[in-house]
Amino acid sequence: MLVPHFKDEYWLSVGYGLEQEASRHDITLMFFEAGGYQSLTEQIAQLADCAKRGVDAVLLGAVSSDHPELLSAIQTVSRDTPVFGLVNELFSTDLSGRIGVDWEEMGLVLGRHLTEVYPTGGAKQEAVLISGPAEAGWIGPLEKGLRAGLLNSSIEIVEVFRADTGLRQQLSAVEDAFSAFPEADLLIGSAPAVEAVIGLMQATNRHTEVALASTYISHTIKRAVINGRVLAVPFDDPRQQGVLAIRQMLRALENGRPAGFDGPDILLISRANNRIGSVVLSPADYFPIIQ
Question: Contact 15/6 with Cβ under 8 angstroms?
């Protein structure tokens, strides 16, 4: 399994689902961490290394959806080793399957909920969006869906700030956003971005009136929804995506046919709708062994 990084708690839940389902089928699972969404060369090298090791299949959480060098590497490896896309958008015609969700729908689900909270006609809400790097394939669709969902709201996204989805990088983006828009009413951000805001509020007692919404789930975001600090988050069940990836891979290996695209339904999670009980993530002390 190749992932961009485990600096984001989201990927820990994906890894846990993979590991639990692999164990059920007595599959040896190896994890490789590229180091971030700018680590294209490292992920390509890891992909080649997996092929040299003679693995039966590669599960790929891609650092880029369409970089020609990565697509070429997938094409080369897939001639002898099936490659399956996982979570992140990946525009390769050489995949044997892909597990994930429509990230445009992720944004749309969140945007529509925020429209219910801040409908047209209400006081104007100045929002900043803290997102991942442009290289990540989910960024563009997520923002497109979010903006579509906000069309009938009183929310205006005044600027988008981008950084790799490690906590330190997202904190820097958050600080830039607050510096540029100190009176922002709403911060919509990746899970690490919202985690960074919560930590910043606790450490400085500043920006405590800013409303928060997360574009995807993490352990910290789950707790923050429960305590009411985060308004809402779309839930794409990262743990279940790991489970589904192992099952899809096994089916494809058994019948020799490409498996297509599959993934869980997206649920909007908020304190008000009582769906938080359906959010199952990796244990707090879980961390995979990385090669």
Answer: yes
Residue 69: per-residue pLDDT: 98
Q: Amino acid letter at 186?
A: L
What 3 state SS string does 31-79 have?
EEECCCCCCHHHHHHHHHHHHHHCCCCEEECCCCCCCHHHHHHHHHHHC
Biggest alpha carbon distance in the chain?
61
Q: Which of 102, 82, 107, 109 is nearest to 94 (CA)?
A: 82
What's residue 270's pLDDT? 95
In the chain, the domains with their CATH numbers are 2-101+237-264 (3.40.50.2300), 103-235 (3.40.50.2300)
41-94 pLDDT tens trace:
999 999 999 999 999 999 999 999 999 999 999 999 999 999 999 999 999 999
Q: What pLDDT sits at residue 135?
A: 81
Strand order in the sheet with 97-99: 32-33, 2-3, 58-60, 83-86, 97-99, 261-262
Distance of alpha carbon 45 from alpha carbon 30, whole angstroms: 15
- Give the start-end residues of each E strand in the chain: 2-3, 32-33, 58-60, 83-86, 97-99, 125-131, 155-162, 186-189, 211-214, 232-235, 261-262, 267-270
d(Cα 177, Cα 160) in Å, to the nearest integer? 8
What pairing do the DSSP bridges indicate for beta strands 267-270 and 232-235? antiparallel
Strand-by-strand arrangement of the 211-214 sheet: 155-162, 125-131, 186-189, 211-214
The residue among 98, 100, 101 whose CA lies nearest residue 78 is: 98
Give percent above pLDDT 70 in the chain.
100
pTM for the whole structure:
0.94
